[in-house]
Amino acid sequence: MIFWNDIDFVSTLNSPFMALAVIGDDSPSANNGGTGLAYNPPNNINLDALPTELLIKISEHMNPQQRIATAFERPLDYMNINRFHLFTEDAHRQLRIATYEGVTEEQERRRRPLVLDAIAYGFSIDQIAQILDIYEQICIEKQIDRHVFLNSAFPDNRPAHLPPPNPEVQHIRRTVLSPLHVAVQHRRLDVIRYLIERGANLKQAILYPERTPFQYALELASRWWAHFETYSLLRTEEYEQIAIELVQHSVGAAFTDDFQGISLEMHLALQGGLERTAMILLDIFKASNPVLNQAARTSLVNIRNEMLDDVLNSYPEMPGLFGYLLADGARYFAGVSMTTIALEAGRIDMAVYALQSEAQDRAGDEEAYLLSIRAICVCALHDNNARAVQRLVRELAILQDDTSINMILAFAISAHVNSVRIRTWILDNTNSANGSTLRHAICFRHMATTSFIMHRLAASGQSVDDLLLDDSPFVMREENGWVWTQTPLAFALAQENYHAASQLLSVGANPDGVPANIRHRVRKLRDRCRATLIGDAVQFIFKGRQHFQGPEPAPTQAVALDTLNYVFVRMLDDPAHPLPPYVRFGLPQGDLEADHPDNDSEWEDYLIHYETVIALAL
């Protein structure tokens, strides 16, 4: 005789029957008054000799996974219609469950059909198909819908003499998942495809929450589940692949039927960062609604515009969808820079799409485009933003907006050691070595950048005495329209950047191209140096920027003095370029004594004013 305590079911064993040990002499049963039976290996036990009641008892003490595995391992014992059939018994039990009595979610989970556990525990499609075939045969015999178990749509079985649960509800829908929902939950795409082929209802919604399989897949991938599980990109991608499989069967919509907002499916896709799914929903909508009335078109414009903000704040980010919406006509508020908002959110790819869109609409919204350029300029002040600036400058190069690139480079030059990578990259990868950027390099006293641009201009065949470009927003003109800082050398001397002036003179700049008032400023400086009124030559030339040349070493006093002497010789003592006379405007022509002590430019505070203008722009 076999006593119940002689059977020990351990869930960790590979086979449910590994624990079915008939204990021998060495291990007497606690309920066995005498010696136990001789030991037999579990796989050698002949269950044919056991009564059916004991087989059922054994099955009841297994978990669902073990019960299903045991049935397929021992079909003669557990799939035998003449003895005990596990799945036939389960089908009858499911159909007897009262639909007029409510139960808790946990109770419902414990009594759910075994086919759902077969899907959840990874049983093969052939095994799942066998179970569904058995369920379907039972439904046919009972003359009810053969897809009851395929869709978990159990019919009302309330006896006629019992009143309904309440006046509004004739029977209580079971909160059990459908096979399709379970396949979605466990990311079994092969099972999903099989169930769809078998005829599963793609619009069947489960209770709590009321979700179709497609909506359920989107919700499982959304950020809402971050409260329960750690975010996983792989899991999200698997759920999105499932959602894409389901949406191919036209089970989702992009907008509400009245075109007053986005659909639940689109909301879940945006919430979960499911870019491909959202774009497919939009494609399906466009294909199925080629013609819309004016009211619907107006509503959709507003909805798409509102979607931009959701996409900007999505996680993971969806740059492709952002670009899709922009290409489809979505726009932010007039005068608002989408590029700026994307950069502030750290969404570089989206910033590129936004810049493309704003460049395309520049004629209609110039302000937004200029705000975007300004935002890029601010990013160029620090190398931490190098990746963003490089992407956007590359886009500006494609758009052939050299003026904006020059402005961005000017900001990078002004940042000195904070923007070495950005400054170097722009100079190396764009056509930005020109008079405008040379002007900024001279103004901010960056030796290496000044030298680089000068040699690049020389290599391109441009004369060092060519007029500076005047496309910079920082260029100042006198009231009569004459710009007296026309050449790089004149500008360098007006800025008192004698190091840049020495570089220009060394590569052939012509002193005769410098206005007389600027050359007399040089003469006055030499007089001050001879009178030992210039104590720190480095500070005088570089105005405190000698320590921001980075990675180049700071200039020394010897270098500064050599620089000044070279400029004095070339500008004042070269017989080939004699110093011209100069009479300051506004003074009597013959009053030389009043003129020479203050021999300077008409704009005596030009240097301070120029840097103030740039500082305000920054």
Automatic annotation (TrEMBL):
Keyword flag Transmembrane helix: no
Keywords: ANK repeat
ANK repeats: 175-202
Domain of life: Eukaryota
UniProt cross-references to PROSITE patterns, sorted A to Z: ANK_REP_REGION (PS50297), ANK_REPEAT (PS50088)
Entry annotated with the keyword Nucleus: no
Pfam families according to UniProt: Ank (PF00023)
Alphabetized InterPro entries for the sequence: Ankyrin_rpt, Ankyrin_rpt-contain_sf
Protein name as it appears in the record: Uncharacterized protein
Species in which this protein is naturally found: Xylaria hypoxylon
